[in-house]
Design brief:
Blueprint: E1 2-4, H1 8-19, E2 29-31, H2 35-41, H3 44-65
Parallel strand pairs: 1-2
Length: about 70
């Protein structure tokens, strides 16, 4: 099962892939406007931690080279 936003281009691409036999016909696609947003929100804590790490590293390197 593939979950896509309500963007019409995604539906067209999935249909073309099925017609060209690049994707099995048994795969279903559903349109769910906000599901991808929920998945992306799960990454926000990792992104914040990495961003904090990078900022600390930059400050430490700047103080080392000063």
């Amino acid at each position: 099962m593939i979950t896509v936003d309500k963007n019409p281009a995604e539906t067209i691409v999935i249909q073309e892939l099925k017609e060209e036999k690049h994707m099995p016909e048994s795969i279903e696609s559903i349109k769910f406007k906000y599901l991808n947003n929920i998945v992306e929100q799960g990454h926000q804590f990792i992104k914040k931690a990495i961003s904090l790490y990078v900022r600390i590293k930059v400050v430490l390197l700047q103080s080392f080279w000063s």
